[in-house]
Amino acid sequence: MARKSITNTKSRIVDAAWKLFYEQGFENTTVEEIIALSATSKGSFYHYFGSKDDLLGSLAYLFDEKYEELAARGFGDRSAPEALLYLNRELFSMIENRIDISLLSRLLSTQLTVSGGKQLLDRNRVYFKLLRRIVGEGQERGEITGGLSADEIVRLYAMTERGLLYDWCLRGGDYSLADWGAKTLPLLVRSFEK
Fold this sequence. Notes:
The structure is a single chain. The chain has 2 domains: 1-51, Arc Repressor Mutant, subunit A (Orthogonal Bundle), CATH 1.10.10; 55-192, Orthogonal Bundle (Tetracycline Repressor, domain 2), CATH 1.10.357.10. The chain is built from 9 helices and no strands. It has helices at residues 2-24, 31-38, 42-48, 59-73, 80-98, 101-113, 126-140, 150-170, 177-192. By secondary structure, the protein is an all-alpha fold.
């Protein structure tokens, strides 16, 4: 019960922060506004985050919440390659519609300059666990090649998604991220098929 309360408090802070960042922008949002909207305390905020900047790294975990939601719905009769493409389409659509591109750009830039805490590469994230599960099951069913390990396939897939995100940010979001992902990722995923 205490664990759920801790997770709930942190999630409320993250959800409130990202709502405000999207509506007002990162620079115009104060810690006090985040605390008020999340109905938490200053002590709770600083227990989980050293500063407002620390919340940028939580964007990776916001993506993981989307993956948890999609995994809970299940993949129906989709093959492993189809499940990978479905996850990408859903995530990229969410990013396009709910995440301010300047915030995503800021997160991506911190991943390049920070010496520790590279959230996007955290192999314990839901993202990597779910991808490994899908790929591993696909290999067991003979849908995905055994010529590469599940970890190698997941790494290539994740690298490609990050590349698309970086390019989209570099170009200022001048094209549809979800549509471009739907055009390019099948080329990679087809190379994994048996």
